[in-house]
From TrEMBL:
<feature type="domain" description="Response regulatory">
    <location>
        <begin position="9"/>
        <end position="131"/>
    </location>
</feature>
<dbReference type="InterPro" id="IPR058245">
    <property type="entry name" value="NreC/VraR/RcsB-like_REC"/>
</dbReference>
<dbReference type="GO" id="GO:0006355">
    <property type="term" value="P:regulation of DNA-templated transcription"/>
</dbReference>
<dbReference type="GO" id="GO:0000160">
    <property type="term" value="P:phosphorelay signal transduction system"/>
</dbReference>
<dbReference type="GO" id="GO:0003677">
    <property type="term" value="F:DNA binding"/>
</dbReference>
<dbReference type="Pfam" id="PF00196">
    <property type="entry name" value="GerE"/>
</dbReference>
<dbReference type="InterPro" id="IPR001789">
    <property type="entry name" value="Sig_transdc_resp-reg_receiver"/>
</dbReference>
<dbReference type="InterPro" id="IPR011006">
    <property type="entry name" value="CheY-like_superfamily"/>
</dbReference>
<keyword id="KW-0238">DNA-binding</keyword>
<protein>
    <submittedName>
        <fullName>LuxR family transcriptional regulator</fullName>
    </submittedName>
</protein>
<feature type="domain" description="HTH luxR-type">
    <location>
        <begin position="151"/>
        <end position="222"/>
    </location>
</feature>
<keyword id="KW-0805">Transcription regulation</keyword>
<keyword id="KW-0804">Transcription</keyword>
<feature type="modified residue" description="4-aspartylphosphate">
    <location>
        <position position="59"/>
    </location>
</feature>
<dbReference type="Pfam" id="PF00072">
    <property type="entry name" value="Response_reg"/>
</dbReference>
<dbReference type="InterPro" id="IPR039420">
    <property type="entry name" value="WalR-like"/>
</dbReference>
<dbReference type="InterPro" id="IPR036388">
    <property type="entry name" value="WH-like_DNA-bd_sf"/>
</dbReference>
Length: 222
């Protein structure tokens, strides 16, 4: 994160006062400047255009429609200001929301289940990753995608370790990050990644962390 003299600036969208105050407290304790907190999706877009924050954090289900207004606002913000990192909080485990948010570019995107905010460090870690232009997708959402039943599922050909690596790839972790989480060498992770791409028929030419994550997410979302 930037030095404390230049704190990250955040806009928060959440219509439930208790949750809004709780998230604001977490952010401020981490040294993040909440420049504005709003209660509806229309104000979320307006506040983002006005303050030009480093990161926008928003609930999915918000006024005025109380449907996926927050998600659609996040997509609008990403389209207008791709340099602004976005984290969406969802009350429900719906992988389609995560895939819709990612679109064609997983960089600077986070999708967390709202219950995870009870663990402040999870939210702060996600913010740090998306501001650094990585992605931060909830492990439970990735597990749901991995666990879907498909006829003649190619995932069945993966070893248990390859499935672990695939899940971490989809969450947005680099090979170095995966090696640290699984306590194996980077070279071992690279071998697993090569095996995964070969077994799933994914292009090895999809160079770059973001394109790799996108390739995996598109595969899992089929």
């Amino acid at each position: 994160m930037p030095p404390m003299s230049q704190p990250l600036r955040a806009v928060l969208g959440e219509d439930q006062p208790i949750v809004r105050e709780g998230v604001m407290t977490i952010l401020r304790r981490a040294g993040i400047d909440v420049v504005e907190a709003v209660e509806d999706a229309v104000d979320l877009v307006r506040a983002t255009e006005e303050h030009l924050p480093d990161v926008v954090i928003t609930d999915i289900r918000m006024p005025p429609g109380l449907q996926d207004d927050g998600l659609r606002a996040a997509q609008k913000i990403r389209a207008a200001r791709p340099e602004t990192a976005v984290i969406v909080l969802s009350q429900f485990l719906d992988a389609s929301y995560a895939l819709d948010l990612v679109g064609d570019d997983p960089s600077g995107v986070g999708y967390l289940l709202k219950e995870k905010v009870a663990s402040p460090q999870i939210l702060i870690d996600a913010i740090e990753r998306v501001v650094a232009r990585d992605s931060a997708l909830d492990p439970d959402v990735i597990s749901a995608l991995l666990g879907r039943k498909r006829p003649e599922d190619p995932l069945a050909a993966l070893t248990p370790k390859e499935r672990e690596v695939l899940a971490l790839m989809a969450e947005g972790h680099s090979n170095t990050g995966i090696s640290q989480k699984l306590f194996v060498s980077v070279a071992a992770v690279e071998r697993h990644v090569t095996g995964i791409f070969m077994k799933l028929g994914l292009s090895q030419t999809a160079s770059g962390q973001h394109r790799r994550v996108l390739a995996v997410l598109r595969y899992l979302g089929q």
